Amino acid sequence: xxxxxxxxxxxxxxxxxxxxxxxxxxxxxxxxxxxxxxxxxxxxxxxxxxxxxxxxxxxxxxxxxxxxxxxxxxxxxxxxxxxxxxxxxxxxxxxxxxxxxxxxxxxxxxxxxxxxxxxxxxxxxxxxxxxxxxxxxxxxxxxxxxxxxxxxxxxxxxxxxxxxxxxxxxxxxxxxxxxxxxxxxxxxxxxxxxxxxxxxxxxxxxxxxxxxxxxxxxxxxxxxxxxxxxxxxxxxxxxxxxxxxxxxxxxxxxxxxxxxxxxxxxxxxxxxxxxxxxxxxxxxxxxxxxxxxxxxxxxxxxxxxxxxxxxxxxxxxxxxxxxxxxxxxxxxxxxxxxxxxxxxxxxxxxxxxxxxxxxxxxxxxxxxxxxxxxxxxxxxxxxxxxxxxxxxxxxxxxxxxxxxxxxxxxxxxxxxxxxxxxxxxxxxxxxxxxxxxxxxxxxxxxxxxxxxxxxxxxxxxxxxxxxxxxxxxxxxxxxxxxxxxxxxxxxxxxxxxxxxxxxxxxxxxxxxxx
Amino acid sequence: xxxxxxxxxxxxxxxxxxxxxxxxxxxxxxxxxxxxxxxxxxxxxxxxxxxxxxxxxxxxxxxxxxxxxxxxxxxxxxxxxxxxxxxxxxxxxxxxxxxxxxxxxxxxxxxxxxxxxxxxxxxxxxxxxxxxxxxxxxxxxxxxxxxxxxxxxxxxxxxxxxxxxxxxxxxxxxxxxxxxxxxxxxxxxxxxxxxxxxxxxxxxxxxxxxxxxxxxxxxxxxxxxxxxxxxxxxxxxxxxxxxxxxxxxxxxxxxxxxxxxxxxxxxxxxxxxxxxxxxxxxxxxxxxxxxxxxxxxxxxxxxxxxxxxxxxxxxxxxxxxxxxxxxxxxxxxxxxxxxxxxxxxxxxxxxxxxxxxxxxxxxxxxxxxxxxxxxxxxxxxxxxx
Lengths: 514, 385
Fold this sequence. Notes:
Chain A is mostly helical. Chain A contains 16 helices and eight strands. Helices cover about 70% and strands about 5% of the residues of chain B. Chain B is mainly alpha-helical. In chain B, the strands form two sheets. A two-stranded antiparallel ribbon of chain B has the order 1-2. A two-stranded antiparallel sheet of chain B has the order 3-4. The interface between A and B is large, with 84 and 76 residues.
């Protein structure tokens, strides 16, 4: 695209990615831990057992430490849509802004009002009111996830809108289509269940450290019981929603789907690469090169995963670049042509309108409408610029899936040995649980890398490329703020980890528990 | 229900919602004001702890109101969001940095092994209190004094200075800068004044309250002075009007004064607000024993009414609410910057939740404020900041 400073685009992307990735270190723990705490407090209120109150308060302390930094990184994300992606803010603000506003009104106030009672209300309000507050905090934080993920789902699969050439933006036509878009719903369910799994792994892991140190055994085992049951249910749900996500991506983002599997040549009865090591990707000169140095495949499984049919055709990257008549796939070359027609027609429409030439304006509008579905492609000349980074997408996807399986198995094993009352003596399992904590954070980041890097170069699928969404600001300003954010977030992360570790050690040595 | 309203009526409705959120935000910035007074009013560690905890139970509410204000502005006036945030980049970034460091400071300041030390987190709180109030006040002043940007035919906005909005506060060669800063400083001193009134309501410690009472005039008087400079300045200057038929923007002498006269309801809201703010301060100052606990409510409601009136003055009665002094015709109005009719209708239904939200906030606040914060409570509360 002429006139776009690619370095500015890259720095703006880097800044957004940095903020989002830092934010996502803290949010999943908030999403899941809030429910785990609410469950623990419910047990306390039901049984009146003071030990459960101590358990609840300990995890609540860790929740508070984590929550504060999640809030700090979250405010930046909202405002970065305006500061760094102002063209995006106009192009889709009519649709994208609404979920953000609803998030504030419906969710954030709920969370922030009742969190004060949750932390400070133990002696000020009744037991039941306090319990209700803890549940409302959990519901509030999860509701906020709903709205931002509806917005994200819309970017991946834009529905329920129409482009208004007069205002040069997309405008909402159907709010319910936006809210109940299968992509949005599935994304929400998959993401929140991933948060529940992360929180469950966190609680099981930290409690296992208590067991390793042979401190507060009952305290730790009770925590593990609640977290592992919650985690097991969530991880099953996580896998089911992940499976459904794959079908959604196959339908609306086939390029991302092919990249997740490193699939260059489409085929029927496509096998799933369960484990693979990629080598240099095929190039236009050598498109048939084998992209894998090593792989283990499951026959037919990719076709089955994509369409619940082992015979289904799964298009590869080259099918989309060059087109595939047999399967009715339009080439990216043709889409680029159509996109350029749409962009030119919009310009002609504006000019004709300004000059009062209605006939010319109507003709341009007709051309525009016919080609609008490919609008974003018109910003490019070379179809190969429309391929995301395949190795990163491939590895991130596989890391996420393999670890997802690991979490489910871990919860089952932990629960079995807890039931048999052998967990407290099984040091190897306690170590596995402890070292799964960094892995669950890795899986979370990998999941978002698949979702966001895998859809590049689109900020809104097929309609708006990232490079046309950026604010027209000086690159050096973004470079400075990038480093300021990087430094600030890193310092705060170190503080958060140090405080949390200190609180964990302090609690383990606390005389009050058993 | 909202379907029957005209597009213009919906645009007015949404400007009122944004104005309401903006005015609530200014009121709730007593938290920021209080953060700049922690070391002024608290001379011992325990006293400072009391003050921090009195504020710490409200900071998240202010924060959330800011986020919701941003979200509502994005949803209802996306061209404003794109122009102001993308253009005045450095002003917004500084405000955001101030809020990042605030969010962690309450939770981390008194925790063991907190990496930066308690003093650093207290400095963060001070920086947030100073920057957020002055810069947000300055940003709101530009609704009356204008900024330098251009909106192209495809509605993409371009900021026309290389300073990312900092020129609005630091270009001392331009007369309007002084008006911008006057409102910034007025908000800063108002926030401190409201904070003092909030402490009078929320803290049960005679030593702290004695100091707070002494500091009231030192903050209330500068607030009144800076506020008067700003208000008189804008009422006597030209304003950014637009023709409702041709939509052409033009400069009209005494535009904002005309707005107050031509919209008497807005005029009354504004004046009532100013009187209430001053009355609350007067009661706390001269009738401390009887009225100090109630003063925050009087001045708080007054603040909300005043700022609400200011916002309506900036956006109603065919006034460009985000004017461009670089290209007058690029100025944003509630008509050319708003979302589509459909989106405004959908969002209007969501806005019906607002009274419900206000009700539960009120209830929760009341439940928590039954007893005032004391030094004894600080010693016993294991989650105290």
